[in-house]
Amino acid sequence: MLKIENLHVSVAGKEILKGLSLELQPGQVHAVMGPNGAGKSTLGNVLAGREGYEVTAGTVTFEGGDLLALEPEERAATGVFLAFQYPVEIPGVNNTYFLRTALNAQRKARGEAELDSMQFLKLVRDKLAVLHLKDELLHRGVNEGFSGGEKKRNEIFQLALLEPKLAILDETDSGLDIDALKAVADGVNALRSQNRAFLVITHYQRLLDYIKPDVVHVLADGRIVETGGPELALELEAHGYAWVKDRIAPES
Ligand code: ADP
Ligand code: MG
Ligand code: MG
């Protein structure tokens, strides 16, 4: 589904990703872990097509096509979702309206008919049920006064509505409270399916107590330096990232 080969990315003239390769199949959940500044968010941002990231070498293939050739909206339409894409507060803009606009923009880009309010409300009810969520966040302004956990729930709800094939979640390095962490994990677990893959980017092992990844990658100094099963996350937890740094080949 996703194949990243020898990806080199610079930000503001500085090389951040230095030959990153990673392959992911439909239905899988991959975790990318790594120390602060390793380039984890850079990876998520470059896959989503955010501005300011210069790809200097390498390829990213998504379902056989060149992902890097697509505009961000086209990437979304083709089924790539970077969670926490819209973490901003938009006071006064009703969240339901916002979500429907986002969904219809995606449907339009895919050549699908837009949903009217009745159809959208039915879809909302279905997705709320799948995620065991209440509708209280829908009647407020977008992220307006949301707690960390509420923001995450809203983002997961957005993910459920947009039904991406590949969902990339960047947990950032600012510690999420346990409430927010569980919201993310419950959402990922509820939305796991044979046709959908997740790339879960996290600094912390504790998220993986709730989401059991199929594959764990360690990103350090702009490259994947280790790939393994869930036990790799536990090893990292036990030994810390210094253990990984010690294992990076000197020629790198
Ligand atoms: P991580 O998410 O693993 O903590 P990032 O991808 O955020 O790492 O950052 C990797 C490196 O790139 C860091 O050294 C960071 O300072 C640098 N970096 C990221 N974004 C920018 C930017 N917009 N301008 C300059 N440097 C950046
Ligand atoms: Mg960081
Ligand atoms: Mg980060």
From TrEMBL:
SUPFAM superfamilies: P-loop containing nucleoside triphosphate hydrolases
Entry keywords, A to Z: ATP-binding, Nucleotide-binding
Keyword ATP-binding tagged: yes
Keyword Translocase: no
Domain ABC transporter span(s) in chain numbering: 2-246
Residue ranges the record marks as coiled coil: none
NCBIfam families given in the database record: sufC (TIGR01978)
Family according to the record: Belongs to the ABC transporter superfamily. Ycf16 family.
Name the record gives this protein: Fe-S cluster assembly ATPase SufC
Organism in which the protein naturally occurs: Lysobacter panacisoli
